[in-house]
Amino acid sequence: MKRSVVRFEPEGKKLLTDMGLNILDAAKEGGVGIRSECGGKGKCGKCRIIIEDQRNVSEVTNTERQHLTPEEIYQGNRLACMTSIHGDLVVFIPSETRLSVRRIQVQGMEQPTKLEPNVKKINLVMKKPTVQNPIADDFNILSNLEKLSNLQELEFEYELLRILPDVLRKGDWNVTITTLGDRSVIDLEPFDTTSRIFGFAIDIGTSKLVGYLVDLNSGEVVGVGSMENPQIAYGEDILSRISHAEETPDNKQRLQNLVTEGINGIIQMACEDSGVEPREIYELTVVGNTAMFSLFLGIQTKYLHLAPYIPGVKGPTIVKAKELNINANPRASVHVLPNIAGYVGADAVGDVLATAIHKMDEMCLLVDVGTNGEVFVGNEEEIVSCSCAAGPAFEGVHIQHGLKAVTGAIERIKIEPKSFNVKYETIGGSKPVGICGSGIIDAVAEMFKCGIITDRGKFNNIESQRMVRIEGRPEFVVAWKEETNTGKNITVSMKDTEEIQLAKAAIHTGCTVLMEKKKVTEEDIDRVFIAGAFGNYINPESAKFLGLIPDISTEKISFAGNTALAGAKMALVSKDVRKTAQRLSRWIRYVELMAEPNFQKEFINSTLIPYRYLDRYPSVKKYLEKNR
Fold first, then answer.
1. For residue 519, what are the CA distances in angstroms to 37, 42, 401?
2. Do the first three CATH levels of 3-92 and 119-190 match, i.e. the same topology?
3. pLDDT for residue 95
4. CATH architecture of 119-190
5. Beta-bridge partner residues of 528
6. 229 confidence band (pLDDT: 50, 70, 90)
7. pTM of the predicted structure, to 2 decimals
């Protein structure tokens, strides 16, 4: 097959790639980051590139004409997923198309936990065997363990039996044993290494991987690793990845390999920062939604997106690290926390563990805002839960100028009611390149407050320079092109408001349906926890004005951060927490929203800003009566 040289600018990176391959796939193979929320299917239009000399690429497709204006095509704009390579060429990746390093929420609310890890190290100083006492090496160790720690009937991993005699003599009968639970010896080292025992807690998110390296002697986090989930190249949303996995066995294996490679990357990152060797990691705990759980373990996902949406495995699941090719001690155990049901996965169990709503007598609302949102209502008596398919709009997908929380993304917006002047803040304080989730929530809420849009998201006929028309359709300018790093106006369109209305309606519907199940109103809710990496940056007033969450006093709202990871860490350091996680996965009552008789009606009501019945939002009603 003929090969071509493709140079990607502004990085200047050159790749030797097969002719006929599309530019997005070539970039993936070469490790060049190009946004592609739809996984290269031509649906999102986010993989825009610029090719000035187009002699060595395929003709413009009809799909590209749907996303690009004639002027943009004339200027050399193309979609990377639709453009095939026919020879050597230079590809420019605009700033808004590059996969930048984004801000990832690592910290999360966590409950005090008694330190009782499932792995432990024991130092043994033994007597040498003699002619008078010719005790076998393995029996010598086991009898000493029984005397010292009352551990009985332990078994050695086979690999250890092969090296056991040499290790004992290398340490001159002073050795350290690592045990897993009360069942087996998983490592054997010469001399006293009891001060070096670590574990790793992992949150496999749809869009990111985050991990804690934990000293199991103290329970303290000594290192952190995080990155984009590499599976994102095959789609921002869960269903795109499941569809890709179902196409061929190789695709399924590729997605599993990608997340494993990503986990190894964050392990290496955390270990390098803390001076720990990966082989000193003896156990890992993992959380993720049911789709991520299944793709990580290589479990069939086909039936997860077909009614009645049943996971193949509820869990918990325990696997050896070496079976998953994870870079830790080869005999380390990987403990994947259990799912609840449907799309309420192990990450949701982590949310409950970290916030401890299952121990409270107060009525609680817990909302994990994300692509696949989860909602819980209840307390120590009963908790009901559901999954809300909010979609990736909060990550900037399907939003015209949407971005993840990367440097230059507008994250805070305030609009002056009379002049419509906009004040905004960007991540890192740099020139804006787009709007991230918290910014678009602010934007739509502010536009409604100021009367720029109606409660249905339609634009009112207002006089302002910031109201512009693109191809006959109204858009509101948040940042003028002279202010931006892209040289283009950053605007909010009616399509953008519609996307946010649908996303927020999914979360709000989950809240209202579960509150009805529990027969509670907004006044009955004592505490609200907003969890998730994205949720941590939401302005609560904007969230209420938009109707993302019910109209509950701001004083009752707590931002819990990455509670999924915090829950995984709690399970890492405590066997008792694991037992609690298993009980919660069976005890929490799951509600399938789609099966609820009032779901469709409630969802339609929830698409309005903030809600069809304004009496449910007295704070918004009071503001509108005073200011309009």
1. 39, 45, 40
2. yes
3. 67
4. Roll (3.10)
5. 365, 557
6. confident
7. 0.82
